[in-house]
Every structure is written in C-alpha cells, then in structure tokens.
Amino acid sequence: MSKHALLVVAHPRPDSLTAQLAERARARLAADGYSVDVLDLHAEEFDPRMSPSDEPDWADLNKEYSAEVRAHMRRVEAADTIVVVFPLWWFGLPAILKGWIDRVWNNGFAYGQRAPRLRGKRMLWLALAAYGEEPFVERGWKELVGRLLRVGISEYCGIEDAQVHFTYDSLGAGADALKEADVALDALGA
C-alpha cells in the first residue's frame, strides 16, 4: 500500500530555518516510503486573499470554488499525511498559511458534510517559535496555539490524528532545530 504525504511550507525565504526543517521532513518522509508532494506556498505564489468565488456558501455544500482552490483541494485530498512547516508569527499562522486554510479547507470540502473528506488523515503541525520553551509554556501559548491547530482546525475538519510540535528559540536553534524536527517526525512515524 503506497503512502502519500502533502508537505506544506509557509516561509518567504528558501534559505530559512523553516525551509531547512521542511527539507528534513521531506527526506524523512521519502525514506519512510512516502511519495511527497511539496507545496511551498510562496514559491507557488499562492494568493491568500479570500475572494467571493472562494468564500464559503453556508447554504450550498456543492459550491464550485475557483480552479486554483479546487487544484489545492485535490492535493489535500490525495494525501494520507499532511505536514505543515511554518514560523509562528504573532502567535499564529503566517498570513499566507492562514489564507490557504481559509480558502482551501472550505465548507463542503473540509467541513460541513456528514463524512468529512479529511477524516482518517494524519497531520503534523511543525511550528517554529522564537520564544524559549519555558516562557512560551508559562504564558500559555503552547496550550492556546496547540489547541487552535489540533482542535480548531484539524479535528474540526475530521482529522483526529493531529499533532503539534514546537521548535523553540528558532532564532538561535541552528542544528538543534533539525533534531527537534526529528523528534516530531519520529512521533509521526516518518
């Protein structure tokens, strides 16, 4: 049985630590037998702005979304495992990633049906936080952000096997960040 992963990357610089962690994730997934679809939102020039053609229509679960969004939906649907690698900015998702979730994980696709299309998938949110672990945890950000990603997005869309892993002190982590990514990927089974 073949395994397929969608690896979503949300950082504007291809030489960033985020990009390095994404490459580490790609290599680990491939070594574990996954075919890997790398979706670099910046490199693919994804437009995160919501337009009327992609705004959810609560009265129409069969709404025909834009061609761009339907192409992204197919990529999400094709994956058994979704890994999202991103920097935590202002304690949330970067705008391009938030816009991708808003436009692609849409009503009638990711939620709003009796049997969500994303049910049964596995998901890893791999977030880079500039804070050290202790102040991040003490201030409640780990619980708040982790719950938003795991419950507010993943579980809401039917993905019950969702993990959130933070790489702390990302501005000074260097090679240690790659070890942290390995811990998260080990838990995923990659």
Automatic annotation (TrEMBL):
<keyword id="KW-0560">Oxidoreductase</keyword>
<dbReference type="InterPro" id="IPR029039">
    <property type="entry name" value="Flavoprotein-like_sf"/>
</dbReference>
<dbReference type="InterPro" id="IPR051545">
    <property type="entry name" value="NAD(P)H_dehydrogenase_qn"/>
</dbReference>
<dbReference type="InterPro" id="IPR003680">
    <property type="entry name" value="Flavodoxin_fold"/>
</dbReference>
<dbReference type="Pfam" id="PF02525">
    <property type="entry name" value="Flavodoxin_2"/>
</dbReference>
<protein>
    <submittedName>
        <fullName>NADPH oxidoreductase</fullName>
    </submittedName>
</protein>
<comment type="similarity">
    <text>Belongs to the NAD(P)H dehydrogenase (quinone) family.</text>
</comment>
<feature type="domain" description="Flavodoxin-like fold">
    <location>
        <begin position="3"/>
        <end position="182"/>
    </location>
</feature>
<dbReference type="GO" id="GO:0005829">
    <property type="term" value="C:cytosol"/>
</dbReference>
<dbReference type="GO" id="GO:0003955">
    <property type="term" value="F:NAD(P)H dehydrogenase (quinone) activity"/>
</dbReference>
